[in-house]
Amino acid sequence: SVVTADLPWLPYLAIAYVFGATITQALFLAIHELAHNLFFKSPLHNRLFSMVANWPIGIPYTIPFRGYHLEHHKFQGVDGVDTDVPSYFEAQHIRGPLSKTAWACCQILTYALRPMFIKAQDITAMHVTNWAVQIAFDAAMLYAFGWRPLAYMVLCILLAGGLHPCAGHFISEHYVFPHLAPKQETYSYYGPLNYLTWNVGYHNEHHDFPYIPWSRLPELRRIAPEFYDNLAVCESWVGVIWDYIMRDDVGPYNRVKRPMPKEE
Q1: Is 106 part of any domain?
Q2: What is the pLDDT of residues 196-207, one digit of tens each?
Q3: pTM score of the predicted model
Q4: Counting beta carbons within 10 angstroms of the beta carbon of residue 116, is it exposed (0 to 12), middle (13 to 18) or buried (19 or more)?
Q5: Which domain holds residue 142?
Q6: Does any domain span residue 157?
Q7: In degrees rounded to 5, what are phi and psi of residue 137?
Q8: How big is the CA angle at 177 (ends 174 and 180), to the nearest 5 degrees?
Q9: Number of domains in the chain
Q10: Spatial distance between the Cα atoms of 135 and 139, rounded to a whole number of angstroms
């Protein structure tokens, strides 16, 4: 981000899109692994290191993400709990190619803002630590290099969660695609972009065994083909973004929702 500060706009944007956004997406998904305690044996060490992985992203989010994401696994599709499910407002207003393109360009903002409106978290000491550590890092960057590297980080967040090939995983994971498998809730992707994204494409495998690390998910699929080879897959993350925007039968309503299970 420091090296790009004085580049002309065209190479600046090209580097931000090709390299910066790809690295930022990889950091998002490293933090995803850390949320499942898959780097270290100690949960505390995973949380603390996730704050370090959060530094180049510029905005503190790793601790709130962990809480929301683990709820997504435990209560997938549960209305008002799983904040991965689009809101009613999104479903009502994101209906045609233009609005879906705008949403796809800014989908990282919906993932960041939606949880606050649907299910706000209680502030804990870890939340405060995440903010304090990140603000200290940002302040050091501002003092040493000025505001431009920080602006570059924010730009990379928007590009990484927008019309970027790696951002296709946000859509491919749990949107129901009638033309593929209308009753399937989770899709896996086995293409080469997994090398850049901690194998997040192995998403059925990940939801079945969320405490198996990224490096062993391909082996899981290899030794259990009877569970995965018969499922529909996402062939292309770029293609799934295109389908989301252009197909009339795909949109925010293409998600499975269920009520909170009753306590026994």
Answers
A1: yes
A2: 999 999 999 999
A3: 0.94
A4: exposed
A5: 2-246
A6: yes
A7: -65, -45
A8: 120
A9: 1
A10: 6
